[in-house]
Amino acid sequence: MYRLSKLRFGFPIGLLIMLLLDGSLSHIFSSQMFNYPTVMVSHLVVLWLVTAVLYEENVTMPLGRWAIVAGAVFDLYYTGIFGVYIFIFPLVVYVTRIMVTYISPNFLSGLLIYFIDITLVEGLGFLASRVVHMTVISGSSFLVNTLGPTLALNLALYVILYFPIRWVYNWLN
Question: Where are the transmembrane segments (predicted)?
Answer without folding.
Answer: 36-55, 67-95, 107-129, 141-165
